Amino acid sequence: MVATLAEQIREIAQESKEKDIAEKFLTRLKEGSLTRDENPQTHFCVFFQPYNPATKQVFIADHKKSGLWLSPGGHIDKEEDLLQAVNREISEELGVRSYFPHAPKPFLLTVTYIENGARACKVHYDTWYLMETNGDNFQVDLSEFHQVKWLPIPEAKKLATHSAMQKNFETLEELYP
Questions:
Q1: Rounded average pLDDT over 98-120
Q2: Are 81 and 73 in contact (CB under 8 A)?
Q3: Which H/E stretch holds residue 50?
Q4: Which residues contact 20 (CB under 8 A, 6 or more apart)?
Q5: Contact at 8 Å (CB) between 47 and 128?
Q6: If you compute the radius of gyration of the chain from its CA atoms, what whole number of angstroms results?
Q7: Is 159 exposed, middle or buried (0-12, 13-18, 19+ CB in 10 A)?
Q8: Cα gap 123→121, rounded to integer Å
Q9: Rounded to an integer, what distance in angstroms lies between the CA atom of residue 19 and that of residue 127?
């Protein structure tokens, strides 16, 4: 039997070493209405970090809506689980279909407070997945991005200064010293 989105989120939060973030995930989970469709202000999202282990570079994008350099990803749609959401986002943004055959373990959880007053989103509960790739099969959808780049992590840190992105990079540096 396939676990529901709520069950999946509960499991990853309970397994997380980041106890303060995990507690925020579990508290938000109790409120229900987990997706943007159900609660436009506070909801769960998926992000994936394309990373080339051979070159030790990350793929980041200058996101049009947020005005920030970010890793690809987005909102979980109603009726999706985590695997469906991350594979949909990879397909939509990078043109790669069904990248993950099975649900991978996330490498990071973050809570992002949205400071763009023009948008309904106020808080994202982000589950991050590592996408090891050289990007050869990417067909980037530039309707969402001004530009995209592959950069070494130290250079990416200078462009993508948002706190969740910095945590993403720090975690990658720990995983791939």
A1: 90
A2: no
A3: strand 42-52
A4: none
A5: yes
A6: 15
A7: middle
A8: 6
A9: 14
**Model pTM greater than 0.90?**
yes
Q: Which residue in this structure is represented by tokens 């990007």?
A: 135
Buried b (16+ CB within 10 A) or exposed e, 88-109: bbbeebbebeebeeebeebbbb
- Tell me which architecture the domain covering 5-175 has in CATH: Alpha-Beta Complex (3.90)
Give the chain's largest Cα–Cα span: 44
Q: Are 126 and 73 in contact (CB under 8 A)?
A: yes
Question: CA-CA distance, 122 to 114, in Å (whole number)?
Answer: 5
Domain boundaries, the chain: 5-175
Alpha helices in the chain (DSSP H): 5-15, 19-30, 82-94, 153-159, 163-175
70 forms bridges with which residues in the sheet? 61
Cα of 173 vs its chain's centroid, Å: 17
| CA distance linking residue 148 with residue 160, whole number of Å | 12
Q: What is the pLDDT of residues 116-138, one digit of tens each?
A: 766 788 999 999 999 999 999 99
Q: In percent, how much of the chain has pLDDT > 70?
A: 97
Mean pLDDT score, 155-165: 95
First to last CA, the chain: 38
